[in-house]
Design brief:
Strand 9 and strand 10 form a beta hairpin. With 211 residues, this protein is α/β, with parallel strands linked by helices. The protein is 29% helix and 19% strand. It has one domain: Alpha-Beta Complex (DHBP synthase). A six-stranded mixed sheet has the order 6-3-5-4-9-10. Strands 7-2-1-8 form a four-stranded mixed sheet, with no helix packed on it. Helix 1 packs across helix 4.
Length: 211
Amino acid sequence: MNARRLDRRTIARAAEILRRGAVVVFPTSGLYGLGADAFNARAVTRIFDLKGRDPAKPLLVLVDSPEMVARVAQPPSALACHLMTCFWPGRVTLVVPALPGLPLGLTAPDGTIGVRQVAHPVAAALVRALGGPLTGTSANLSGAGGCASVAGLDPAIRDAVDLVMDAGPLVGHPGSTVVEVKEQGVTIVREGVVPRAQIMAAVEQFAAATY
């Protein structure tokens, strides 16, 4: 599969098996990810088992548009919407209040969830074909580095998933910047591809416009 040309048959096949509880390796903007239907609790649990991930560390989810955020989160604040406009698709994961009843592996103890609109064309097409949010954790064992190519996948991951979607080498950037959005402002949970200063400049822009 070429990163710039979507193989629709592969994407349709991946979406079909995801609906049945499969786990797939798929490309994101920087690294390969492990995808499961975010509403399938058994598949979400399987992601944790494959990675050896601490159950206390929830998985973020990927959407294909700001509108799809409503499937997993409460109505976003005006500040959250501003950050979506500034930084989506890709680059920034927003931590916002979650809807009740989601699989436990998606929500933090404080009832929040991490959400990002995907930028990679294959990942975006996969979310659209699935018709709902997809888990977006990196395709590696917990504690190991992420993979920018299928060749770099740990055999324990490659042999355990149901499908590997090879889109060639990826850019391998350090991952999205994770920003928790609260009523009183934002907290930078993890600084990634978008610098802290750029996030804070967007927050200040919002504050100036609404003062």
